[in-house]
């Protein structure tokens, strides 16, 4: 049985839903960490340039393909060119892989949120707390289930009544929370035992100051690669998600304007996340506190909340609520993409496909949880890191598939069907696409070369 094609009710609904997908754990935990690691303001400048060039090109491509074909990635690429159907299948793999672990991370956030509600949170600031939680057998699965059920329920309610409706109150809520915490973070200060005082404003300087010291060509390329892979993940491009959301956009919506708004939203939240986290960590833990990955959010920040004293608990609750919002709307977009693609391919109803994808997500997420105990292993990755099950999924989807898909998409759009196809979709209602020439140039010459390099370096085939 075929259901009627769903749509976002208007441009704001679309922008908030797409921003909901884009704004996720990547903005709040990975962006600030990369900034601190890669020279503060230097990283910011590079990232901003990439958003305005690569980000805009890839986002425009995905969304325009979706709206023009009114199809999901699995079918859309075949519609663009029958020989390129395989690209749809490749693209589908990314959300299928991300789905396996995103709800697990969502579960961790849910757990921390609940713990801060019911306790004073002092246990969470202990070094071993996070590891003993994720390696325990039952708890991570229970919290993952709560988060997954919430995600599935929103997707089940559909595009307008579920995704759009929830994004409409979650996204403004997220902005308010992040603004309040970021401003609060700037007002912090602490006196060390030796009498030195560290303030939030000094922390802001650490964040914004472009540190060029020790900058070599190799180091610059490393920063560029960090910024580039962050950009993909952050904008949710090259994984079919924005194609799916684009297919729900009505023909009278001004795509160019909406894309600019989504970019501003996503980059703005990442910037604010840095303003929220870096000064706070600087004040309480010094410059060494900015450890990578999960430890920043789940180990360093609880220490910061603990050190804040009485306001720490309420700040922590606000923080994990905001982080939960960000993760939820992203996870919804991943699941929606899987459900929508399968509905189209198997001609089944949303309800049927939600159950099928729900079961898939459940089984794979349990496996990921078990990756920290019963199924524990460490695998060396081609890029030199060692990885557990979750990291392996992350690596295949983000470091391997996404640059490869972007490379192929740029060849298809730039050279096979031609950039005009996308440009005419953006200008559908006579809108002015100011950066049309930049778009054509980028998609034909710059994106393929850079994506190929990114792919080779991050898979370890090419060395910096
Ligand atoms: N864009 C999200 C973030 O920045 C992550 C995400 C990736 C969401 C893939 C959906 C799909 O965290």
TrEMBL record:
It is a multi-pass membrane protein. InterPro entries: Na/ntran_symport (IPR000175), SNS_sf (IPR037272), YocR/YhdH-like (IPR047218). Keywords: Membrane, Transmembrane, Transmembrane helix, Transport. PANTHER family: TRANSPORTER. The chain crosses the membrane at residues 12-29, 41-65, 86-109, 129-156, 168-188, 227-248, 269-291, 311-335, 356-375, 395-417, 438-461. This is Sodium-dependent transporter. NCBIfam families: Na_transp.
């Amino acid at each position: 049985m075929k259901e009627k094609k769903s749509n976002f009710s208007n441009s704001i609904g679309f922008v908030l839903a797409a921003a909901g997908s884009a704004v996720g754990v990547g903005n709040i935990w990975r962006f600030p960490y990369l900034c601190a690691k890669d020279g503060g303001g230097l990283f910011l400048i590079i990232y901003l340039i990439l958003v305005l060039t690569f980000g805009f090109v890839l986002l425009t491509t995905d969304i325009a393909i979706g709206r023009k074909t009114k199809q999901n990635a699995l079918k859309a690429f075949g519609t663009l060119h029958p020989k390129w159907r395989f690209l749809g299948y490749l693209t589908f793999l990314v959300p299928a892989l991300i789905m396996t672990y995103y709800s697990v991370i969502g579960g961790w956030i849910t757990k921390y949120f609940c713990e801060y509600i019911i306790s004073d949170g002092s246990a969470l600031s202990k070094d071993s707390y996070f590891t003993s939680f994720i390696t325990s057998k039952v708890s991570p699965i229970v919290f993952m289930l709560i988060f997954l059920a919430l995600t599935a329920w929103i997707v089940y309610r559909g595009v307008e009544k579920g995704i759009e409706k929830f994004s409409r109150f979650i996204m403004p809520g997220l902005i308010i929370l992040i603004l309040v915490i970021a401003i609060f973070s700037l007002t912090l200060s602490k006196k060390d035992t030796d009498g030195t005082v560290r303030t939030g404003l000094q922390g802001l300087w650490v964040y914004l100051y472009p540190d060029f010291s020790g900058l070599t060509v190799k180091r610059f390329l490393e920063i560029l690669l960090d910024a580039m892979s962050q950009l993909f993940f952050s904008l949710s491009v090259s994984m079919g998600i924005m194609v799916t959301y684009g297919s729900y956009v009505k023909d009278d919506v001004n795509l160019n304007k909406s894309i600019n708004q989504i970019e501003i939203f996503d980059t703005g939240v990442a910037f604010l996340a840095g303003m929220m986290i870096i000064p706070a960590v600087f004040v309480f833990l010094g410059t060494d506190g900015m450890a990578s990955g999960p430890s920043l959010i789940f180990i360093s920040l609880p220490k910061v909340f603990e050190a804040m004293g009485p306001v720490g608990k309420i700040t922590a609750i606000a923080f994990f609520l905001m982080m939960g919002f960000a993760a939820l709307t992203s996870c919804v977009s991943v699941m929606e993409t899987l459900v929508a693609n399968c509905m189209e391919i198997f001609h089944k109803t949303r309800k049927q496909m939600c159950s099928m994808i729900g079961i898939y997500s459940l089984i794979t997420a349990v496996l990921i949880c078990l990756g920290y105990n019963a199924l524990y292993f460490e695998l060396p990755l081609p890029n030199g890191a060692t990885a557990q099950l979750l990291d392996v999924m992350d690596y295949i989807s983000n470091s391997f598939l996404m640059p490869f898909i972007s490379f192929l998409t740029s060849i298809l759009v730039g050279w096979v069907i031609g950039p005009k196809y996308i440009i005419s979709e953006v200008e559908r209602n006579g809108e002015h696409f100011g950066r049309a020439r930049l778009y054509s140039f980028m998609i034909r010459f710059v994106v393929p070369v850079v994506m190929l390099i990114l792919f080779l370096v991050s898979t370890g085939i090419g060395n910096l």
